[in-house]
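ugh ok fine here u go
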Amino acid sequence: MKALTWQGKRNVSVETVPDPGLVMPNDAIIEVTSSAICGSDLHLYEVLGPFMDQGDILGHEPMGRVVEAGSQSTLSVGDRVVVPFNISCGSCWMCSRGLYSQCERTQITEYGSGAALFGFSKLYGSVPGGQAEYLRVPHADFGPIKVGEERPDHRYLFLSDILPTAWQGVKYADVGEGDTLAVYGLGPVGQFAARIGVHLGARVFALDPVEERREMAKRHGVEVFDISDESHEAIRDATEGRGPDAVVDAVGMEGHQSPLGKLAHQAVGLLPDAAGQKLMEVGGLDRLSALHSAIDLVRRGGTISLSGVYGGQADPMPMLTLFDKQIQLRMGQCNVKRWIDELMPIVEDASDPLGIDDLVTHRLPLSEAPRGYEMFQKKTDGCIKVVLEPQAG
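structure:
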């Protein structure tokens, strides 16, 4: 089969690799019909190279049709399914509490990591990902989400990651009718987080340096701002001088306005893998501009919810400010299956209340995936969300 493989920093290529096969009786094989490029994929493309092996298959936002089903998979050939990005058993102590991203049967204990993820480095198990023609799905007796036939792929596809990630981020922010919410970053997760805030009745402000992203959010009732001190002041003015009740940081480790963090990322990329791994395991390598700005902006007694991924182990944090302002911090990998029952009716609603039809800016065959990564990373050609179609052409 054809699959998108990691070859080095900012270097991915489509290669011919062996077809996946059933390994365990609760496995399934799907023919991938759609697979999105996620902002987290860009961390592999840019920063997390020391934890990648040449030839690793990328991608953790897939959906498709079951073509083989293990005897214990609870699936049948022909089922249309979305595959959550985290691999969980559904029955361990963590899963029984809805903490599917911490599944005790798939945790990567070698690196002290939570549940295994598709297509996401040694840190999360080096499980072959879904930017490929076919995908082996472990724990297919629990993980895959069966979906109907009445909606196009993109209506369901984002249940794999970014839609429940944004939903969890806003739920952790604990905002609803009449509250105020600021969202840092209007990539795909930030777009959905802002729209979810509006859907739940909050007044939503969003900050991003890219005009196309701001214009997309504005179409969905979000008040948008560039990244600047003046924007913070305008948001404070709109919230009686206090700042918003909550902030969702949808940016994460590669924030734009963090030159020292950028230098650290570049240094890691120049080191041999063993040295780069060690530095990332003990160093403070994240670009923290979005998080520090969120701490500055949120009102006293407010909440900051982190949906953007961070990876540094010794990042400097303004603890005096956090303590003095009595800020609550919530964060973590999304527990995808925890939120599906709440999200499925919204996804299937003909009125499209979250504007899912207005997110994908580029659809590409798998053969053009390297171009998709480059566009998404450089934010060229108005690129906000790329969906790959492995069966196209």
